[in-house]
Design a protein that fits this description.
Blueprint (H helix, E strand, L loop, with lengths): L18 H16 L4 H14 L6 E4 L3 E6 L8 E6 L7 H15 L5 H13 L6 H18 L4 H23 L4 H21 L3 H13 L4 H12 L3 H31 L18 H17 L6 H21 L4 H22 L5 H7 L6 H11 L4 H31 L23
Antiparallel strand pairs: 1-2, 2-3
Helix pairs in contact: 1-2, 1-4, 2-3, 3-4, 5-6, 5-8, 5-11, 6-7, 6-8, 7-8, 7-10, 8-15, 9-10, 9-16, 10-15, 11-12, 11-14, 12-13, 12-14, 13-16, 15-16
């Protein structure tokens, strides 16, 4: 008789993992993240696709620069893991809408895997709803509208428009030569500030600040700011830290360009003075409200938002400006006034997006455009270079505080809407949201 111990029974092979499903989850997540979506939404979309196409025990990891998907069949079968690097991020909000519709259709079983791949190819090959020249011109229109909002007239708006287009085209030429984006933004900001310094040298100091305010407004990082705060609130701290650092470097590049030109102009004897800077509007003017709406519309065009978003963007820009001016009229501090206006607009934008089953970023980001602190940044650089360094630092801190208040306000509005929604996201209830788990920092 054989006295050797019996061999353990062999495990049956686990479930098979379709590599095409893993590839679809990765590619959809990559395109969402590259098009400007927040980390939480990308994670939800990828997990929804994993459930729809039956990837067993799927794990998803999303950061600002890479994606990872791993499926574990179990029963001794090896896991299947795929990863992709995000090498280029170009805001294209029309793609966000199309990708969210793809995820929703797949989640309710309306798309077979091959059909989903075909639709993804169509989305990748698609074009923005606006011609390329209009998206370039929209940057100049942002600057022109921002100048009008700051109190400028037609001549000032035209100057800001030309300076912004010249700065953008110069930055594009530098990009084609492989120059880093930091220096592209520095040069673009310097060209806008140079136009303002030229106006001061010609004897029109009151117009300089309105010109540079408009030119800076087209460069300020409103989109990554909103996304960074959203990632921080939802617990994606790695992505949040990376996005905050990205915002910091973008603002640092703008400040460097402004500071270099202001310093050079002051040393050449150009009479740049804080007295000539515009003060915040204390009353509502029809021209200012129209200019605020125009800023939001042109911001939406520059971000390639769908056409149907333009009306909502115009209303959101006008509303956030009206609320801000009313709050300032009641002696509310600028940071708190910006936060209050952003909360109201954030609630309405999130409600509208959820009602139409659309991503919220195309509604939120253009709406905060009128309150981005272009004048405060310019004021800080003028004060730093005219003998008031302490006041200049405080002005720069105030500008950053207003920007953070805008991002936090619109995200808080989204949390209010989420608290009263009736269904969860991605097939899960509200309690299953990772950001809602009570960790207390542990």
């Amino acid at each position: 008789m054989d006295g050797s111990p019996p061999e353990p029974p062999e495990e049956e092979p686990g479930e098979t993992v379709d590599p095409r499903a893993v590839d679809l989850v990765l590619r959809v997540g990559e395109l969402l993240l590259a098009s400007g979506e927040t980390t939480e939404r990308v994670n939800e979309a990828m997990l929804s696709l994993a459930v729809a196409y039956e990837l067993p025990r799927c794990e998803v990891q999303v950061t600002l620069t890479s994606l990872l998907v791993s499926a574990h069949p179990g029963k001794g079968a090896p896991p299947m893991t795929g990863t992709r690097a995000i090498r280029r991020r170009t805001p294209a909000y029309w793609r966000l809408t199309a990708l969210h519709q793809l995820v929703q259709d797949a989640s309710i079983g309306m798309l077979e895997l091959d059909e989903a791949h075909n639709r993804l190819k169509e989305i990748k090959a698609g074009r923005a709803p606006y011609p390329a020249w209009l998206m370039v011109v929209s940057l100049g229109l942002i600057a022109a509208s921002g100048s009008v909002l700051s109190g400028g007239g037609p001549l000032v708006a035209t100057t800001a428009f030309i300076a912004t287009l010249l700065g953008d085209r110069t930055a594009a030429a530098l990009a084609r030569r492989g120059i880093a984006e930091f220096f592209q933004l520095t040069v673009a900001a310097a060209i806008g500030a140079g136009a303002a310094a030229l106006v001061v040298a010609m004897g029109n100091p009151g117009h300089a600040a309105t010109i540079v305010t408009g030119a800076i407004l087209a460069l300020l990082p409103g989109r990554p700011l909103v996304a960074s705060i959203q990632d921080g609130i939802t617990g994606d701290l790695v992505s949040a830290g990376a996005r905050v650092l990205e915002v910091f470097f973008m603002i640092a590049a703008i400040v460097a360009g402004l500071g270099a030109i202001v310093y050079l102009a002051v040393n050449l004897g150009v009479p740049i003075d804080v007295k000539h800077l515009p003060t915040p509007a204390a009353e509502l003017r029809p021209v200012a409200v129209i200019a605020a709406a125009a800023i939001s519309v042109t911001f939406a065009i520059s971000l390639a938002a769908p056409r149907y978003v333009l009306t909502a963007a115009a209303l959101g820009g006008a509303l956030i400006w009206v609320l801000y001016v009313l709050a300032r009229g009641w002696d509310v501090p600028p940071v708190l006034a910006a936060a209050i206006a952003a909360i109201v607009v954030g609630v309405l934008a999130n409600w509208l997006a959820r009602r139409h089953n659309q991503p919220v970023m195309p509604f939120v980001v253009p709406a905060i455009g009128p309150l981005l602190p272009g004048t405060a940044l310019y004021r800080g650089m003028v004060e730093l270079n005219t003998g008031s360094p302490n006041t200049g630092v405080l002005s720069l801190i105030g500008a950053v505080s207003v920007a953070l208040a805008l991002g936090a306000g619109v995200n808080l509005g989204g949390e209010f809407v989420r608290a009263f929604q009736h269904v969860g996201l991605g097939g899960s209830g509200r309690w299953a949201r990772p950001a809602a788990r009570r960790t207390r920092g542990f």
